[in-house]
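Q: what sequence does this backbone want?
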């Protein structure tokens, strides 16, 4: 329900985006500067790299040449390199630049290419919640579907998924609009567990896969709403503490905009899929299907050379940006929620 989320009123929730992180905002870019493109995303192993190394001049020169290529020239070159040829021109340019960057850095003695992954697994979450057609300001949105899709960042595959429906408490009767939008029926939620019980199942699912203990992982969402609004509101309604493992996440819209140098208006789920040359698979506004399609975008970005990393967090009820200069940390081991009482 990505487009519908943007119409949600949150005047009654103490959530706001800090304005102190201006560097995280995505700005429209009609031309890619070779100098900016020459510096790779910095991984933990590269934090002290010297970008004055001659290899970066070669990368900048290659980027300048790629910037002058036509769409057909890009497609032919990508095909010759056995790389994906789908997507709009800017996406193909970024894919080709990332390929040359990796090749150059791997060939250069003492230099490491941006091939490190920050996490072993990425867990995609896209809630569905109760809603009205006009979303009145006093309406409390309750989570009615809790899906998760697990990505292995080493094999670049979707390896597992989780889905449970949730019984709402405050507004137990779903609106006709909500049923039509999400495909979730009244019978589905009536037979479901309440949110605290479903969250316990989520925690058990994560623990069984040894996430946060044996394997490093991060949560990924399509926008800030899922964690900062839906989960935040739901925890208050259910009178439980906000889960610590969900306090930081990857907002893929920010990552996509920053990586492909596009404005925020081009980072909706349907638009990202289209620009990458992908088609939506499944039923729109199904939480699990949305999560799978978001995972497909994340996989394509990883294949194109993007190093997805946490870029948003919750602190004291507020939504904050996480600057790229912060140390990279995985989500903590999941634990069952504590009561607010």
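A:
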């Amino acid at each position: 329900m990505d487009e519908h989320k943007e119409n949600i009123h949150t005047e009654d929730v103490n959530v706001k985006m800090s304005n102190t992180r201006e560097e995280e905002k995505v700005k429209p870019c009609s031309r890619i500067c070779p100098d900016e493109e020459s510096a790779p995303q910095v991984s933990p192993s590269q934090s002290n790299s010297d970008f004055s190394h001659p290899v970066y001049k070669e990368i900048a020169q290659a980027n300048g040449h790629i910037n002058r290529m036509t769409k057909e020239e890009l497609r032919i070159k990508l095909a010759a390199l056995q790389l994906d040829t789908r997507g709009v021109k800017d996406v193909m340019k970024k894919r080709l630049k990332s390929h040359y960057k990796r090749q150059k850095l791997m060939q250069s003695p003492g230099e490491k290419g941006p091939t490190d992954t920050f996490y072993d697994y990425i867990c995609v979450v896209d809630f569905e919640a109760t809603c009205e057609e006009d979303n009145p300001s006093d309406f409390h949105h309750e989570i009615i579907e809790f899906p998760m899709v697990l990505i292995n960042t080493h094999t670049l595959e979707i390896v597992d998924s989780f889905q449970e429906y949730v019984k709402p408490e405050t507004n137990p009767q779903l609106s006709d609009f909500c049923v039509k939008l999400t495909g979730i029926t009244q019978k589905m939620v009536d037979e479901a567990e309440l949110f605290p019980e479903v969250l316990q199942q989520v925690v058990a699912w994560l623990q069984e896969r040894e996430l946060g203990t044996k394997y490093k992982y991060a949560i990924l969402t399509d926008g800030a709403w899922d964690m900062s609004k839906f989960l935040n509101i739901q925890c208050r309604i259910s009178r439980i503490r906000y889960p610590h493992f969900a306090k930081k996440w990857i907002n893929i819209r920010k990552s996509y905009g920053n990586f492909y140098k596009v404005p925020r208006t081009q980072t909706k789920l349907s638009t990202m899929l289209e620009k990458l040359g992908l088609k939506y698979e499944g039923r729109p506004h199904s939480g699990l299907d949305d999560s799978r399609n978001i995972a497909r975008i994340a996989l394509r970005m990883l294949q194109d050379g993007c190093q997805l990393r946490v870029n948003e967090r919750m602190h004291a009820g507020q939504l904050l940006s996480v600057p790229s200069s912060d140390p990279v940390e995985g989500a903590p081991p999941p634990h069952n929620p504590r009561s607010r009482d």
